[in-house]
Write a structure and sequence with these properties.
Layout: E1 5-8, H1 14-22, H2 27-30, H3 39-50, E2 54-61, E3 64-75, H4 78-81, E4 83-92, H5 101-115, E5 120-123, H6 130-138
Parallel strand pairs: 4-5
Antiparallel strand pairs: 1-2, 2-3, 3-4
Length: 152
């Protein structure tokens, strides 16, 4: 296996990232990977990329994007004005699943949060993703809160 590089995503990576977001039972119902790729994805990428508190990452191997995640750095007044790292949209392309890439991505994200001075790293996972929950627990995360969402 050749080396995997994790880096800030570029606009050229958006189609591959959206394809990974769509490649699971939940994503298949809410994403539109195209072709053609809807312009809304590129608009969202540009907003993310321009925001210094956002980091969209791409894992690349042999010239192909095979993993992704997004980190949001959240400033807060709580915990003495602490910053938290919020990890979202962790995905590994089907051919790379089971290779340890997911753990490598999370370790990389945690290090990015440390470098930014975060006191905590948090993430959410859909309640139906039991395997993902076990994965995150193996990596040292605890299910310490109950999350709520409201569609607008």
């Amino acid at each position: 296996m050749t080396e995997t590089t994790i880096r800030r995503a570029t606009e050229a990576d958006v189609a591959a990232i959206v394809a990974m977001l769509a490649d699971d039972p939940l994503g298949a119902t809410r994403e539109q990977p195209g072709p053609p790729l809807p312009e809304a994805y590129l608009d969202a990428f540009r907003r993310i990329d321009a925001d210094p508190n956002q980091l969209l990452a791409a894992a690349e191997r042999d010239g192909a994007v095979i993993g992704t995640l997004q980190i949001t750095f959240l400033a807060s007044l709580s915990r003495l004005g602490a910053t938290r790292g919020q990890i979202e949209a962790v995905r590994v392309a089907a051919p790379a699943r089971g290779t340890g890439l997911g753990g490598t991505l999370i370790d990389w994200a945690v290090e990015q949060c440390r470098e930014r001075g975060c006191v905590m790293v948090q993430l959410t996972s859909d309640a139906s993703r039991n395997e993902a929950h076990r994965f995150y627990e193996r990596l040292g995360f605890t299910a310490s809160h109950v999350g709520f969402k409201r569609r607008l």
